[in-house]
Amino acid sequence: YGTSRFNDYGHLTIGEVDVTHLAEKYGTPLYIYDVADIRQRAHDFKKAFETENVSYQVAYASKAFSCVAMFQLADELGLSLDVCSGGELYTALEAGFPVERIHFHGNNKTPDELEMAVEKQIGCIVVDNFTELTWLMAITEANKQSVDVLIRITPGVEAHTHEYISTGQEDSKFGFDLNSQQATKAIQMIMAHDHVKLLGVHSHIGSQIFKTEGFEHTVKEIYKSLSFWKEELDYEPDVLNVGGGFGIRYSTHDEPLPLGKYIEKTVQAAKQEADSRGMKVPEIWIEPGRAMVGEAGTTMYSIGSRKEIPTLRTYLSVDGGMTDNIRPALYQAEYEAVVANKGNEPEEELVSIAGRCCESGDMLIWDLKIPHTVPGDLLAVSSTGAYGYAMASNYNRMLRPAVVFVEDGHHECVIEREQYEDLVRKESRYSRINPVLK
Ligand code: LLP
């Protein structure tokens, strides 16, 4: 999908912009987003639904990367938006994202957040549990407003990368349990309520999934319950949301499917199940986060110090690390990188890339083959667009990097780099420090 390549000077370009210029202008570390890549992915998801001739919504799971500009882009691309906190909702509203296309998730939405969502009349709330349902009923009654909801169910399928496990029962903090009839009870409660309207059901089975079987199996599992609800409650959903989790390429070991493949197989499974049970085919909704922005993002670092342990390893340290990408430390996630200003030089040195936090676990890449580098060379780590900036922190009082969007030779900073002053902006001195004892 992406537009990144080396030019004749051996400089990496993304969106036809030489990234060494970006490093000079905006500093490092720097997150660079290839906007064309995001556009293409949104297009491919939508195209696949249109080919299957089914009503749909593609909701961008904003937890992967959210900011005002990203929400504007998602809107322009005709996407809906999955938000999972008041903060994401607030940012979407600030971006002017159409409220009717916002879906609100979370296993512990606060009453204030629910109130905000109801007041703003967002598209739907994905109801996760009885506590929240009760609050929502009270809020809508008090406000004399109505709200559409999906109920999140746990279908007992857990999918990750190449495998899925059908546990039958899921030990998860999210959603209503199917086996214990909790979901049935929730549906009955909603059907009997005047202000909370049941649009359909939602499930999310995992992340970084490389096969379609997990989704197909989930649809089949869900249909067992759907046909029971049709018989018992005369209820049929208008919407079936199968969540996100579509896998991307972090390294050459990963072989993701074309995005349309997941849609094709999932929709076909839903059609088949619906037809064989004499039910209508619902709208199919998905919620890709990683698959929308993951590969579009590249993080640029400046290389700094070098430590050589003879015969063992060479550590190259960069000017960022776990504060801008926690995924290697947290999930042992693997990334690949190139030296962005030395594309014409042979990859002759084996190094390991360390972050600069005071923590041994702050390693970004083990055993990377790159050209010989000197301090000041630029390292570009690919596929950092999802859960990178989104999970960034100020650990060690590091400053969050800037974010730039590039496309067709154009570059634009959409999030400024934090400054030292930002670190103490919310802080105050303690009034009981006694100057005499100091
Ligand atoms: N929908 C729901 C309800 C979710 O919980 C998630 C992710 C998504 C959609 C989007 O999943 P995606 O398409 O991005 O895989 N921090 C972790 C990922 C956590 C995902 C949580 N939920 C990571 O860096 O891998």
From TrEMBL:
InterPro entries: Ala_racemase/Decarboxylase_C, DAP_deCOOHase_LysA, De-COase2_C, De-COase2_N, Orn/DAP/Arg_de-COase, PLP-binding_barrel. One of its GO terms (molecular function) is pyridoxal phosphate binding. The modification N6-(pyridoxal phosphate)lysine is found at residue 63. SUPFAM superfamilies: Alanine racemase C-terminal domain-like (SSF50621), PLP-binding barrel (SSF51419). Residues 36-293 form the Orn/DAP/Arg decarboxylase 2 N-terminal domain. Keywords: Amino-acid biosynthesis, Decarboxylase, Lyase, Lysine biosynthesis, Pyridoxal phosphate. Gene3D superfamilies: Alanine racemase, Lyase, Ornithine Decarboxylase, Chain A, domain 1. Belongs to the Orn/Lys/Arg decarboxylase class-II family. LysA subfamily. This is Diaminopimelate decarboxylase. It comes from Salisediminibacterium beveridgei.
